[in-house]
Structures are given as C-alpha cells and as structure tokens.
Amino acid sequence: MPALDLNAIPGYREAVERENNVRDNAFLGIAEKICGIEVLSMTPRHFLILDGIGSPFVTGGSILPEEVVRFLWIMSPRFRIVRSFHDWIARWRFAASCRKLNWETSIKAIFAYLEETFMDRPGANSASNSVGSSWSWLAAMVDAIARNYHWSEETILNTPLKRLFQYRKIISMANDPNAIHFNPRDKVIGEYLRKINNIADN
C-alpha cells in the first residue's frame, strides 16, 4: 500500500498552518478578540476563577447571556475582583459594552477560543486526568513545569495555557520519545481516511 501523501488531503495543510500560527502567536503577546471584545490568553489562574464560579464554558451546562458576559469580563484586560464601588462601576460599564453582542455568535466564538487554548492539552489517558487521581491536572502541570524549568508557582499560574501545554508536550517527549501526542490535524486525516474507506466499501 503506497504511503499516504498528507499534503494531498484536503484541508490538511491549512490545519497545520493554523496550529503553527496558534502556537507561535502564544509567545508574541498578541491581543486576542472574541466578537470584537479584547481578551487575554487564558492562564491557569483564569481557568481556576471560571471553574470556581461554575462557568458552563468550563464546567458544562446551559449557557445564558449573562454567562457570556461573565466569561468575557474575567478574560478582559480590565478584569478586577469587585471590592469597591469603582470596581463595580468598571464591571457595569464592561457589561453595558456587551449588550449589542449576538449571543449565539459569541458562544461559538468563545468555544473556538477555548478549542485553541486547549489544543495541546495532555491526552485523556495521562495520569493527571485518570479517574481516581490524587491531584488535579493543573497540579500536575505546575509540578512538571517547576521541576523542569524551575519556575515559581506564581509564574506558572500566570503563563498562558497555550504556552504551558506546549512546554508540557516537550517535557513528555523528552521523558518518553515514544509518547503519543494528538494534534487537530489528526482529525482531518481521520475524516479523510473514513471517507476513503466508505467509498471503497461501496
């Protein structure tokens, strides 16, 4: 059977280019936007806040318009914990600026943002993700980065996940050259092979 020419698969080269752009841009500090709203690249600290408030974007569940605003506010460069009247005014003004958003479009855009953020996350079979694990995946992330790069916990918690996941992949490959990692492009290959097999079966 001849070797599969990956570049001949429709959409494969575009998928690789998109992955490379996402990975490279994570190191450039380029401002991101969701439906025109400026947001920061998600860090572990952002994730912990969203998880702590039960945001359906990270915990699952139905999504109401106010959840869109809460997510965008937490990811905004203007975000602050509301401790004073001025903090409350800042949050109110931000919410007011979101009133013209199309909610369905915003929800899709947020999930696209999250998909890029977690593109390089460890697979479901990693020890930190297994059922009955004694630690969270974030603890495993902090431990791996700290042991290999000697960064402080504070630095790691404030580093974009898009960068941390790439470092985690490098550490994994250094420890086990045979470790299997998945990329979004693999989905393009899988869909192409299924299509070819369906044609052959018919």
Task: Please sum up the structure shown.
By secondary structure, the chain is mostly helical. The protein is 57% helix and 3% strand.
**Helical content (DSSP H or I, runs of 4+):** 55-70%
Pattern of helices and strands: HEEHHHHHHHHH
**Unreliable runs:** none
Q: State the strand order across the main sheet.
A: 1-2
Biggest β-sheet strands, sense, barrel: 2 strands, antiparallel
Structural shape: globular
Mean pLDDT: 87
How does this model look, in words?
Helix 7 crosses helix 9. Strand 1 (32-34) and strand 2 form a beta hairpin. The chain has a two-stranded antiparallel ribbon. The model has no long low-confidence stretch (mean pLDDT 87). It contains ten helices and two strands. It has helices spanning 12-25, 44-52, 56-59, 65-75, 85-97, 103-117, 137-149, 153-157, 161-175, 185-201; strands at residues 32-34, 37-39. It has 202 residues and is mainly alpha-helical.
